[in-house]
């Protein structure tokens, strides 16, 4: 456990150094954060054009949570990038489980997503007349963090399958978060979809977590909110388990046939 914690710590430090080399607080605020806020406002304005405050509320809350999912799934680019840069073999040789190394790569981006989603949650509802149940609403960022961790496990799982096809990483990233935004109740209720598709969305991250957040903001009972959050945790754990199995399979195969350094 000591080696695992040490590798996780240094992985986080390395990720932070890389992230801050790419972003200053000014560039993050004026480019990335503003882009995410504008996206959420765009969908809220659709609700306003439809002349329904209820639709404004629904679209804004859904897209505030979806902001976090975009950042969380960036782990796909970071993990696949290790194979392209030729450092994958070194990461596998780290004195810990290689899964710990992979997971540490994108935690800074996950933190960025949670911060961006929280800023949007604090700043945008008053602009669109969305009423929040303060001070209880202060718990929503913690719920967003739960959803973010689940989305991060999902992104890590996708990355484990894309490792063999590095050139497809951007396609995988865009499809991954667009699937969540389309089918998980962000812009339309999950009840809109046919039963077989609803069954599939129930195993996607954000579906249950977003439902819990909506129920909480609507003063729903704890008996509704907590089970949905628990299901979100279970979904995240499931994606994490699949990611672990997929990464282990990739590493074993790479060691066996000498393709672990492949960077095509």
Keywords:
single chain, 264 residues, mainly alpha, 75% helix, globular
Fold and architecture overview:
- This protein is mainly alpha-helical and 264 residues long.
- The protein has one domain.
- Helices cover 75% and strands 0% of the residues.
- It is built from twelve helices and no strands.
- α7 packs antiparallel against α8.
- The longest helix is centred in the C-terminal third of the chain and has 36 residues, at 222-257.
Note the topology.
Layout: H1 2-22, H2 25-49, H3 53-72, H4 75-84, H5 88-92, H6 98-105, H7 107-123, H8 140-162, H9 169-183, H10 195-201, H11 207-217, H12 222-257
Short description:
With 264 residues, the chain is mainly alpha-helical.
Q: What is the SS-derived class?
A: mainly alpha
Q: Which sheet architecture does the biggest sheet show?
A: none
Determine Rg (CA atoms, Å): 19 Å
- N-to-C series of helices and strands: HHHHHHHHHHHH
Shape estimate: globular
- Separation of the first and last Cα atoms: 34 Å
Integer tally of domains: 1
The unreliable regions are: none
**Helix share bin:** over 70%
Mean pLDDT: 83
- Work out the helix count: 12
Strand content: under 5%
The strand count comes to: 0
Domain ABC-2 type transporter transmembrane: 23-215
Subcellular location: Membrane
Membrane topology: Multi-pass membrane protein
Protein name: ABC transporter permease
């Amino acid at each position: 456990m000591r080696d695992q914690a040490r590798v996780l710590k240094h992985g986080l430090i390395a990720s932070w150094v890389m992230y801050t080399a790419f972003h200053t607080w000014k560039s993050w605020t004026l480019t990335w954060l503003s882009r995410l806020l504008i996206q959420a406002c765009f969908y809220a304005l659709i609700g306003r054009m439809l002349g329904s405050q209820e639709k404004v509320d629904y679209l804004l809350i859904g897209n505030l949570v979806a902001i976090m999912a975009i950042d969380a799934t960036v782990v796909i680019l970071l993990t696949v990038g290790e194979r392209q840069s030729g450092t994958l073999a070194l990461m596998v040789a780290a004195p810990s489980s290689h899964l710990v190394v992979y997971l540490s790569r994108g935690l800074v981006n996950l933190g960025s997503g949670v911060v961006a989603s929280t800023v949007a949650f604090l700043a945008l509802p008053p602009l669109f007349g969305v009423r929040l149940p303060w001070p209880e609403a202060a718990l929503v960022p913690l719920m967003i963090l739960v959803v973010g961790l689940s989305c991060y496990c999902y992104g890590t799982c996708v990355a484990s399958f894309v490792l063999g096809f590095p050139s497809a990483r951007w396609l995988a990233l865009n499809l991954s978060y667009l699937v969540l935004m389309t089918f998980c109740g962000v812009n339309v209720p999950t009840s809109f979809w046919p039963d077989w598709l609803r069954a599939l969305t129930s195993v996607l991250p954000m579906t249950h977590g977003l439902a819990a957040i909506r129920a909480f903001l609507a003063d729903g009972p704890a008996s509704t909110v907590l089970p949905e959050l628990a299901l979100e945790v279970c979904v995240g754990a499931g994606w994490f388990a699949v990611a672990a199995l997929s990464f282990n399979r990739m590493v074993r195969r790479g060691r066996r046939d000498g393709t672990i350094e492949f960077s095509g």
